[in-house]
From TrEMBL:
InterPro entries referenced in this protein's UniProt entry, alphabetically: Allene_oxi_cyc_Dirigent (IPR044859), Dirigent (IPR004265)
Name of the featured protein: Dirigent protein
Functional summary from the UniProt entry: Dirigent proteins impart stereoselectivity on the phenoxy radical-coupling reaction, yielding optically active lignans from two molecules of coniferyl alcohol in the biosynthesis of lignans, flavonolignans, and alkaloids and thus plays a central role in plant secondary metabolism.
Keyword check for Secreted: yes
Complex formation: Homodimer.
Keywords: Apoplast, Secreted, Signal
GO BP annotations, alphabetical order: phenylpropanoid biosynthetic process
Length: 197
């Protein structure tokens, strides 16, 4: 009996080692992931794509006690009249009408940077974060060039979105409604055309 126990123990050890080795081989094969694969859009709840148009006003307030746009990087002292290098961060109200007292439908949050040396043109990076109706909590993302000095209507791409605007694409047109030269405050009308599900 004394000779059987060491043999049984050594057999169990060998069994566990072989089993562990097989488990490692099998689990190693299972852990290999596929980098990309096609999906059925219905699995993500995506139905027929639609085209929507949104119109609202963007209030860029740089003056007063409670500005909604603040300078985070000043233009260099030797900058041209285009303020090349200036960067402003903003959290601007979006309203249905041009008056600030109009119904608020969301916020524009992001930054713009003066990105041209020979004309007034901005790099715009922003999200339209909506708070109205079924769009509450959904966002549209804009990234593009706003050549404010040379064009009455400026066009920037919609590069995506969240919630109701997942997989969104389209464009936003900006038109200056009013600009206070003394303060720098501006009201911009936005017309946004977006494909989404």
């Amino acid at each position: 009996m004394a000779g059987i126990l060491p043999t049984l123990a050594s057999q169990l050890i060998v069994f566990f080692l072989v089993s562990s080795f097989c488990i490692i081989l099998v689990s190693g094969e299972e852990e290999e992931h596929v980098f990309g694969r096609a999906l059925d859009r219905k699995l993500l709840g995506l139905k027929k794509e639609k085209l929507s148009h949104f119109r609202f006003y963007f209030h860029d307030i740089v003056s007063g006690q409670n500005p909604t746009a603040v300078q985070v990087v000043p233009a260099p002292s030797n900058a041209s009249a285009t303020f090349f290098g200036l960067v402003r961060m903003f959290d601007n109200p979006l309203t249905l009408g041009p008056k600030l007292s109009s119904k608020t439908v969301g916020k524009a949050q992001g930054f713009y940077a003066s990105a041209a040396q020979e004309e007034i043109a901005f790099l715009m990076v922003m999200n339209f974060a909506f708070t109205e109706g079924k769009y509450n909590g959904s966002t549209l993302s804009i990234l593009g060039r706003n050549n404010g000095g040379s064009s009455r209507v400026r066009e920037m791409p919609v590069i995506g979105g969240s919630r109701l605007f997942r997989f969104a694409r389209g464009y936003a047109q900006a038109t200056t409604h009013s600009l206070e030269l003394k303060t720098g405050d501006a009201i911009i009308e936005y017309n946004v055309y977006v494909f989404h599900y």
